[in-house]
Amino acid sequence: MHLSEASPVDDQYVTCFNDCEDKCKSEGNGYSFCEMKCDTDCLAKQALGRLHEYLMQKTNKKKLKRRPHTAALLSRSKT
Questions:
Q1: Which region holds residue 31: left if phi is over 0, alpha if psi is between -120 and 50, else beta?
Q2: Which Pfam families would you find in this protein's record (predicted)?
Q3: pLDDT digits (tens, 9 = 90+) for 30-65
Q4: What is the dihedral of CA 31, 37, 18, 15, to 10 degrees?
């Protein structure tokens, strides 16, 4: 069997899931409902976080690739 340490993303998922499940159960919902709801919600948050990181990396790379005259053109268009 191969075991690996949990990544920070997995730790974030576990924290999200446990918090969500506690809240869901305290609202009177059952185990299966809470498990499905929290799994869906936390996976969506995880995917959104990854997408945000990806887009930020792409945006930063584009800023680095801009030519010096691009900034001058952009400043002219604002006036």
A1: alpha
A2: Ole_e_6
A3: 999 999 999 999 999 999 999 999 999 888 877 666
A4: 160
